[in-house]
Write a structure and sequence with these properties.
It contains 7 helices and 12 strands. The chain is α+β, with helices and mostly antiparallel strands. It is globular, with a radius of gyration of 20 Å.
Length: 267
């Protein structure tokens, strides 16, 4: 599932290409009722966590959650005939985009958008984020920090890659209970997430390895993985830690894969 930086990249792209213009919205697949926003001015595009919002004005916001299989394809004019199962087609002055396979694609009222966002934790990529809210939930929980970082009601936008990597970068074992994370550590984790995720928005992939551990410095081969990016532990099970050489460990936690270095992140 795409992590938060992907949705913020999409929001920036759609803001640049479509916001402030009258757009055509349709559903070639027929599973999305677009009539109430078709031909209207798209005021803005924004993201909160893993949710994308196209805001058309009073009581009309298209909400998209990509889920595991959702994708947008972007193209310049001229518009061509739909290919495959297109849930939503958005066409503006110079470009058009097709949305396929999302978990959610729906029109929400302002109250419904507010209710959805109220269920989400602070997003490190949003300027209005309140990290104190996330810390308050973490500090009173006995659940592991690994579970809490992935709970979108605690922290919005962080997925499995950012979770594994930020815990490694700060030497935190993933099973440490939330109520054992002190404020200083939380401030460090939050700050690092904002830096890493902003970089992800800028370059379009997740890179978490510090300069001194990059392939061109250490002489190791670059990472070969469909997710791209240089990482310390994510999907590196059994491979040597880039810092200490210990084989990277893996386990399943809350139906998701967990990765850590037993030496750099002691229990």
């Amino acid at each position: 599932m795409p992590e938060g930086h992907t949705l913020h990249r999409l929001a920036k792209l759609h803001q640049r290409r479509y916001a402030g213009s009258t757009v055509r919205v349709s559903s070639p697949q027929g599973k999305f009722s677009a009539s109430s926003v078709d031909g209207r001015l798209l005021e803005r595009a924004e993201a909160h966590g893993k949710h994308l919002f196209h805001v058309y004005g009073p009581d009309a916001t298209v909400h998209v959650h990509l889920g595991l299989y959702g994708t947008f394809t972007e193209s310049p004019h001229p518009v061509t005939q739909p290919v495959g199962q297109v849930r939503m087609r958005l066409s503006g002055p110079t470009h058009w985009t097709d949305l396929r396979g999302p978990n959610r694609c729906e029109i929400l009222t302002d109250d419904e958008v507010a209710a959805l966002r109220a269920r989400l934790g602070p997003d490190p990529l949003r300027r209005d984020a309140k990290p104190d809210l996330a810390f308050a939930r973490i500090a009173r929980s006995r659940q592991s920090i690994a579970v809490l970082l992935m709970d979108q009601g605690v922290l919005a936008g962080v997925g499995n890659v950012y979770r594994a990597e930020v815990l490694f970068r700060h030497g935190v074992h993933p099973l440490v209970p939330g109520n054992q994370v002190d404020r200083a550590l939380w401030d460090d984790l939050w700050f690092d997430l904002t830096v890493l995720m902003r970089a992800g928005v800028k370059i379009g992939r997740i890179d978490t390895v510090r300069p001194e551990h990059l392939p061109e410095v250490t002489g190791r081969a670059p990472r070969q993985d469909r997710h791209g990016g240089e990482v310390y532990v994510y999907r590196r099970t059994g491979q040597p830690c880039l810092v200490c050489g210990t084989p990277v460990a893996a386990a399943s936690l809350a139906a998701r894969n967990l990765y850590w270095c037993p030496t750099c992140q002691p229990a």
